[in-house]
Amino acid sequence: MIGRLTGRLDHKAQDHVLLDVNGVGYVVQCSERTLAALPPVKSPVSLWTELLVREDLMQLFGFLTVQEREWHRLLTSVQGIGAKGSLAILGTLGSEGVARAIALGDANAVKAAPGVGPKIAQRVVNELQGKAPAMMLIEADDPILEIDAHLSTAPEPDAPRGSPRLVASRKSSASAEALSALTNLGYAPVDASRAVAEAADDAKDTASLIRAALKLLAPKD
């Protein structure tokens, strides 16, 4: 099993990249969102990967974070969602958006992905909603910056402060911390994850996210 590749980005195409790892070129399928977030060609990069093996086919799929890869695994476990459908959903929503949509039971958000119909979208939400809390506890990392630090002698900052990728990483960490705090307080994981997902857009940090989620979880008069 190939779980992660680290090397030089030699080529970007519409739906895949060519990654040179010690002289061996690996073709890795990626979502549009992942492709857009990658650094320029010839830059060092690291991708978490999932290998699909069939009788007549072997394909590698690449992801920026472990969280994204784990969502891919869950999405492809749903009947009617293959690897292409999973990449379409992740490319449309991102791993944070997938977690939010499923925690909130928002099948319409899932349906926004190309090629995903309403019945399949509802099935995704129904089958994975109970798994959303555990997935939200996986904090997002930033492997591109990590690999820059290891492989480049004088790396240029790939993602400045305030970039969408670093903002998403901080949001994921805050969501994971808030969800952990709420479950430690005794709230059911599914209820806690739904409240965190609903409050995440307006919260500035972990503390404000917890306060906002607690308000949503408070008994209604």
Automatic annotation (TrEMBL):
Please state every residue range assigned to the domain named Holliday junction DNA helicase RuvA C-terminal: 174-218
Where does the UniProt annotation locate this protein? Cytoplasm
The yes or no answer to whether the keyword Zinc is present is no
Residue ranges of the region described as Domain III: 172-221
The GO terms describing molecular function are:
ATP binding; four-way junction DNA binding; four-way junction helicase activity
- Its GO CC terms? cytoplasm; Holliday junction helicase complex; Holliday junction resolvase complex
Record-linked InterPro entries: DNA_helicase_Holl-junc_RuvA_I, NA-bd_OB-fold, RuvA, RuvA_2-like, RuvA_C, RuvA_C_sf
What region holds the DNA helicase Holliday junction RuvA type domain?
Answer: 1-62
Alphabetized UniProt keyword annotations:
ATP-binding, Cytoplasm, DNA damage, DNA recombination, DNA repair, DNA-binding, Helicase, Hydrolase, Nucleotide-binding
Where does the record place a coiled coil?
none
Cite a single GO BP annotation. DNA recombination
Question: Primary place of residence?
Answer: cytoplasm
Domain I: annotated segments: 1-64
Give the record's subunit note. Answer: Homotetramer. Forms an RuvA(8)-RuvB(12)-Holliday junction (HJ) complex. HJ DNA is sandwiched between 2 RuvA tetramers; dsDNA enters through RuvA and exits via RuvB. An RuvB hexamer assembles on each DNA strand where it exits the tetramer. Each RuvB hexamer is contacted by two RuvA subunits (via domain III) on 2 adjacent RuvB subunits; this complex drives branch migration. In the full resolvosome a probable DNA-RuvA(4)-RuvB(12)-RuvC(2) complex forms which resolves the HJ.
Q: What is the documented function of this protein? A: The RuvA-RuvB-RuvC complex processes Holliday junction (HJ) DNA during genetic recombination and DNA repair, while the RuvA-RuvB complex plays an important role in the rescue of blocked DNA replication forks via replication fork reversal (RFR). RuvA specifically binds to HJ cruciform DNA, conferring on it an open structure. The RuvB hexamer acts as an ATP-dependent pump, pulling dsDNA into and through the RuvAB complex. HJ branch migration allows RuvC to scan DNA until it finds its consensus sequence, where it cleaves and resolves the cruciform DNA.
Q: What is recorded about the protein's domains?
A: Has three domains with a flexible linker between the domains II and III and assumes an 'L' shape. Domain III is highly mobile and contacts RuvB.
Q: Which family does it belong to?
A: Belongs to the RuvA family.
Protein name as annotated: Holliday junction branch migration complex subunit RuvA
Query: Which lineage is the organism of this entry classified under, starting from the top rank?
Result: Bacteria, Pseudomonadati, Pseudomonadota, Alphaproteobacteria, Rhodobacterales
Report the gene name.
ruvA
